[in-house]
Amino acid sequence: MVNKSTNLEEYIDSFIEDSNLQEVIRSISIACKTISNSVRLAGINDLLGKTGDINVQGEKVEKLDEFANNTLINQLSKSKKVFMMGSEEIESIILPQPENPNGEYVVVFDPLDGSSNIDVSISIGTIFAIYKKINSDPQDVDNLLQKGNQILASGYAVYGSSTVLCLSIINKTSLFTLSGDQEFFLTSENIVHGDSKVYSINESNWNKFTDENKLWVNKLRSEEFGKYTARYVGSLVADFHRNLIKGGVFAYPADPKSGIGRLRLIYECNPLAFIAKQSKGRATDESEDILDIKPTALHQRVGLYIGGEEEINLREKLI
Known about the structure:
Elements: H1 8-15, H2 19-40, E1 50-54, E2 60-62, H3 63-79, E3 82-87, E4 105-113, E5 124-132, E6 153-159, E7 163-169, E8 172-178, E9 184-188, E10 198-201, H4 211-221, E11 229-230, H5 236-246, E12 249-252, E13 263-264, H6 265-278, E14 282-284, E15 301-302, E16 304-307, H7 309-318
Parallel strand pairs: 3-4, 10-11, 10-12
Antiparallel strand pairs: 1-2, 4-5, 5-6, 6-7, 7-8, 8-9, 12-16, 13-15, 14-16
C-alpha cells in the first residue's frame, strides 16, 4: 500500500544509495516546481507566445520553453553534481556554470514537451534522463551520445489538472503529486503499465503510413484483438502518461521516404522508453528496441512505438 505521507526526499533516501544522484534528482524536482508555477501563471506573467528566436529544431521558441530550459540548466548547475547537460532546445553540449570537472552525471532533457499546446492550456511536461559520464573531457559529445540502456534514472513531470512527477529507476517506477505546499508526495508506487485498449496516433498522417502500419492500426480498430478506442492529445508526455496509467500504445512513425522520425531519441524517446521497460511496457523504433539504438547525433530523430507489449508485439508480427 502506498504511504501517501512519503515525500520525494524520503523516497529517494530509501531507494537510491548514491547521495550525488539523489542531489541531481532533487535539483530536477525543484526545477519542475518552478516550471509548474510558471506554467500556471504564464498568462499573468507575460510568458505566453514566442520569443522571436528559432531553436536548433527550426521551431519558433516559446517564452515558456526558454524559461524552462534556463531553469533546468541553472538548477542543475547549482547542484554541483552534474558534469554535462544536453537539451532539446540547445544545439551543442551544455556545461554547468561554473564548470564542474568532478561531476559524475550527465543529464539530458526536453524542458517543455508539447509547447505548441501552451497557449490553449493542454497538459505539457518536462522529460529527463540521468547517465554516468563516460570520461572527463568537457568537449566529448560521446558523454551525451549514450544508449538508453545506460540510463540510471529517468522521468517526467506533467503539468495538467495537477502536477505529477514520474521517477523511474531500475525495476521501480513511482508517481508523486505536487501539494499546495510545494512538496512532491508519493501517490502511486511500483507502477505497472495499464492494460486498457487504447491507441494514440496522429491519424491525419494516415496517407504517409506504410502499408504495414496501416494494417496494424486497422487490426487495432477491427476488434479482433479487443475493442480499441483512440485517444490522442498531441502532447507526447500527456499521451504517454495517460497510457502508462490506463494502458495502450502511442505511435509516431518515421517518414517512410526519409526514414526520419519526428521525436528526438535522446531527449524524448530514451527517457520514456526506460520508464516503459521498468513498468513492463516496451518501446521500439521501426525495427529495434529504442534503448538499444546508439545515438549518432545530439538531435537525432526516430520513429517511436511505445506502450503495452501486446500492441507492439502485434505490430512486429505484421512487419
